Amino acid sequence: MSWFRNLYNWVLSWAQTKYGGSFLFVLAFTESVFFPIPPDILLIALALGASQKAFKYALICTLGSVSGAFVGYAIGNYAWLTDSGEFSAFANFFFDTIPGFSIGLYESIRSLFVEWDFWVIFTAGFTPIPYKVFTVTAGAFDINLAMFALASIVSRGARFFLIAWLIWKYGPSIKVFIEKYFNLLALSATVVLIGGFVLIKYII
Q: CA 162, 167, 168, 173 torsion: positive or negative?
């Protein structure tokens, strides 16, 4: 996996340039469609370098990610299936290149959307689950666009602004904590949140 480490280091190197904010937007945008490196790592590096701009970087990251999500949705909606209902060459490219994204997973996601709709996108956007898989499949399954937009804005914004707030509040001392435990805490918080709504659903 040396190629992945090299890619990771290349992404981080942008934090040392005057184009760091612009590249953060591009990174967040492409990660929502196909890029394997999450924008969090560059967001953390930029915010640590200028904590007074942490929330500005979080906004840039959110705008880039949500913009990319709409592109992913459009790809799924218009380029995922052929007129005969078969997977297109583009869909097969995704299956072949994105780790873990199989036809079986695709069908499983269909069931999740039927049952949970908003919460599927929210979970993918807030937790370490690959967001790109869900932006594309949301379009392929023709999920309500307004709901998709709301879930994307809320989840991506919550994730990136929480990271920015932690760095703004605690500075470099929080970096190791974010890198080691943030994803686990985000996943746990999402489980608790969704669990609460499920409980309310069955009680009422």
A: positive
